Amino acid sequence: MKPIEFPEQTMVWAEDQEPYLPLPAYTDARQTISCWQLTWRERLRVLFSGRLWLRLCNFGKPLQPQSLQTESPFEGDG
Question: Taking the mean position of all CA atoms in its chain, how far away is CA 77?
């Protein structure tokens, strides 16, 4: 799975910051949205297991609201 560019993106987080992967994202005052491309193997795993795991580094701080979805959050925005 890797982050990919998309038309609505407004920035790239961690650009030229090894060892991190660049993260193309749409960012405004309320949210950051990124788009991820699954490999064929990952697609099959999700298809047959129905599971997707999310790992967050919160460093002991409270979690922020998270949302995983399969539809673009930009569709239907007027």
Answer: 19
Using the structure block, give the residue that is written with the tokens 């490999």.
Answer: 39
Three-class SS of residue 31? coil
Half-sphere exposure for 57 (CA within 13 Å, toward CB):
0
Among left, alpha and beta (phi > 0; psi -120 to 50; other), residue 14 is: left
Measure the CA–CA gap between 50 and 48, rounded to whole angstroms: 6
Low-confidence ranges of the chain (pLDDT < 70): 77-78
Q: Tokens standing for 9?
A: 């993106």
Distances (CA, A) of 62 to 13, 17, 29: 22, 26, 20
What's the pTM value of the predicted model, to 2 decimals?
A: 0.84
Helices vs strands, H then E, count in the chain: 1, 5
